[in-house]
Write a structure and sequence with these properties.
The complex is a heterodimer of chains A (about 400) and B (about 70). By secondary structure, chain A is an alpha/beta fold. Chain A is built from 18 helices and nine strands. Chain B is of the alpha+beta class and about 70 residues long. The longest helix of chain B is centred in the C-terminal third of the chain and has 10 residues. Classes of the chains: A alpha/beta (about 400), B alpha+beta (about 70). The complex binds flavin mononucleotide (FMN) and iron/sulfur cluster (2 copies).
Chain lengths: ~400, ~70
C-alpha cells in the first residue's frame, strides 16, 4: 500500500533489505522529475506548507552541480513527534528522498540535520546510511541540530552548518540562491522527502500525513492519517478526548486554537484546512481538556515562545516578551483592561517584523487564543483567589 | 512598467535608535520598544530625498531601498 508507515512493526529502523524488498529499488529519475513533483502539488511538512516543486525548480535553476540538500530533521516543536518516528522507523524512505533530490538537483552534498535530543532517530538514520552504497554515503554528513525552537528554521540550519551558529539570518539571500557555504541549497523536511520517495515510485504522494495527537487524550502520539480523516476521527484513534474537550490547537505552537465543536469535523488535509483559514503546520493537534485554564495555558506557551526568540530582532525579542508578560499578568493577577488592549495592539505591531517567521507564528497563535478564549481572557481571575471565593 | 521604491529594514541589523523615524516621520513610526514600523507600499515621489537621507544616515546601514515594479494603472 502507498503509505509512509506501511511495512514492518514500528519498533525500530527498517533494514535496507526490507525497504527495497517492499518498495523496489530507488528509481533512477532525472530532471523531469521536477514536473512530476510540481504536478503532485506536495506541500512541505516542516510547518510552512510551501510547494516542494516550486522550491526544487528554484534550486535547479541555481545549481551548477554544486547544490546542497539539507534534510531537516530538527523537529524543534516540543509536542511534535512525527519526524522522529519517521526517521527512527523508515529511515530509508527519508534517505531515498534526499538522494533523489541530490540527483535531480545535481547536488554535491547531502546534510542530515537531526535534533540533538532525538537520539533514536539519529542512530536509525546513521545505521541506515551505513547500509547504503559508497557513492551515496560519500555525499552525506550529519549535524546535530541544537535543541532550540528556532534552530529548525531553514536559515538557522544553514547558518549552523556554515558557521556553527543556529540563529536565523536575514533573507534574501534565500537558501536556493546562497545557502550552505554559499551554495544553492534545498532545505526540506524529512516527511516531505519521504513523500518524494513515494512520488518517484508511484507518480503521486501517498495522500496521507503524519500528525501528532497531543494533550488530553489517553494515547497521545503519531498517526498517519488520510486526507479524509477528521480531527474527531484522529482524536478517537488516540483514545478519545480523556476529559470533555474545551478547545483544539490545530498546527502546534504556530497554529490556531479552535472551539472543540468547530474543530471535530475539520479534515486533516492541507487544502481543506486552508479553506477554513487554518494550516496543518507541523501536524500537531493539541486537545485542551475543559478542566485546564486556557488563559494559563496560553500564557505558558507565550512565555516559551518568547524565551525561544533568538534575540536578534527588536520587535521579536521585546515584543514577544511584552506579550508573554501581559498574558502572565492576566493569568496570575486576573484580567485588566490595559493588558487586554496591549495584547490587541502589540500582536498587530509584532507581526511580520522579524528576520524569520517566529514572531508571526507566535502572534497567529495568540490572536487565535484571544478569539477562542475571549470570554476567559475578559473575565479571568487568579486561580487561588477564585478557588477560595 | 514603472519602477518604484519601498523601504525595507534589516531586522537583525537594526538596533532601534529611531533616527530614521525622526528623518522620515511621514513614513516611519516607532513601536513601543523603539523599533521602526514602516508604512507599506511605494515611497511617494516627494519623500524620496528624505528617504534617501534616512537610508544614508542609518548608523548600522539597516535601512535600504527595495525596488518594486508596478504596471501602469495597476
Ligand atoms: C522558528 C521556526 C522553526 C522551524 N522549525 C522547523 C523544524 O524543527 N523542522 C522543520 O522541518 N522545519 C522547521 N521550520 C520550517 C523551515 O524553515 C523550513 O520551512 C522547512 O524545513 C522546509 O521544509 P518543507 O518545505 O519540506 O517543510 C521552522 C520554521 C521556523 C520559522
Ligand atoms: S524574528 Fe525572532 S527568532 Fe527570528 S531571527 Fe529575529 S529574533 Fe530570532
Ligand atoms: S535608523 Fe537604522 S538602526 Fe535606527 S531605527 Fe532606523 S533602521 Fe533601525
Amino acid at each position: 500500500m502507498n503509505s509512509l508507515l506501511a511495512g514492518p512493526p514500528l519498533t525500530g529502523p527498517e533494514s535496507l533489505a526490507s525497504h527495497a524488498g517492499r518498495l523496489g529499488p530507488m528509481p533512477a529519475v532525472g530532471a523531469r522529475f521536477i514536473d512530476t513533483l510540481v504536478q503532485s502539488r506536495i506541500a512541505g511538512r516542516g510547518g510552512a506548507g510551501f510547494p516542494a516543486g516550486t522550491k526544487w525548480q528554484a534550486v535547479a535553476t541555481h545549481s551548477r552541480g554544486d547544490a546542497v540538500v539539507l534534510v531537516n530533521g530538527a523537529e524543534g516543536e516540543p509536542q511534535s513527534k512525527k519526524d522522529r518516528l519517521l526517521m527512527s522507523t523508515r529511515p530509508h524512505l527519508v534517505l531515498d528522498g534526499a538522494f533523489i533530490a541530490a540527483r535531480v538537483l545535481r547536488a554535491r552534498r547531502v546534510i542530515l540535520y537531526i535534533g540533538e535530543r532525538h537520539r533514536a532517530a539519529r542512530a536509525a538514520m546513521l545505521q541506515a546510511l551505513a547500509e547504503r552504497n559508497e557513492t551515496e554515503r560519500r555525499l552525506v554528513s550529519e549535524h546535530a541540530a541544537p535543541a532550540r525552537y528556532v534552530a529548525g528554521a531553514e536559515s538557522a540550519a544553514i547558518h549552523f552548518i556554515t558557521e556553527g551558529v543556529a540563529t536565523p539570518t536575514t533573507m534574501p539571500p534565500y537558501p536556493f540562491e546562497r545557502g550552505v557555504d554559499g551554495k544553492p541549497t534545498l532545505v526540506q523536511n524529512v516527511e516531505t522527502l519521504a513523500q518524494v520517495a513515494l512520488i518517484a515510485r508511484y507518480g503521486e504522494p501517498s495522500g496521507t500525513s503524519l500528525v501528532t495527537i497531543a494533550g488530553g487524550v489517553p494515547r497521545p502520539g503519531v498517526l498517519e492519517v488520510e486526507s479524509t480523516t477528521t480531527i474527531a476521527d484522529a482524536v478517537s484513534l488516540a483514545g478519545g478526548a480523556s476529559d470533555q474537550a474545551r478547545a483544539v490547537l490545530v498546527g502546534g505552537y504556530f497554529g490556531r486554537w479552535m472551539e472543540a465543536r468547530d474543530a471535530w469535523p475539520l479534515r486533516l488535509d492541507q487544502g481543506s484546512l486552508r479553506s477554513h483559514g487554518l494550516a496543518l503546520g507541523c501536524g500537531v493537534i493539541g486537545v485542551l481538556p475543559a478542566g485546564r485554564c486556557p488563559v494559563c495555558e496560553t500564557a505558558g506557551i507565550m512565555r516559551y515562545l518568547a524565551g525561544e526568540s533568538s534575540a536578534q530582532c527588536g520587535p521579536c525579542f521585546f515584543g514577544l516578551r511584552a506579550l508573554a508578560d501581559a498574558c502572565t499578568r492576566i493569568a496570575e493577577h486576573g484580567t485588566n483592561r490595559d493588558d487586554l488592549q496591549r495584547l490587541d495592539r502589540w500582536t498587530e505591531d509584532v507581526r511580520g517584523r522579524g528576520a524569520c517567521r517566529h514572531p508571526d507564528g507566535a502572534v497567529i497563535f495568540l490572536q487565535s487564543a484571544l478569539q477562542t478564549f475571549g470570554r476567559e481572557f475578559a473575565g479571568h481571575r487568579p486561580h487561588s483567589a477564585a478557588e477560595a471565593a | 512598467m514603472t519602477k518604484e521604491f519601498a523601504l525595507t529594514v534589516d531586522r537583525i541589523k537594526c538596533d532601534g535608535r529611531g533616527l530614521c523615524a525622526e528623518l522620515l516621520p511621514e513614513m516611519i513610526r516607532l513601536d513601543e520598544w523603539g523599533y521602526p514600523i514602516i508604512a507599506a507600499g511605494p515611497i511617494p515621489q516627494h519623500l524620496i530625498p528624505l528617504a534617501q537621507r534616512a537610508v544614508e544616515d542609518c548608523p548600522v546601514l539597516a535601512l535600504a531601498f527595495r525596488r518594486t515594479e508596478r504596471s501602469k494603472g495597476g
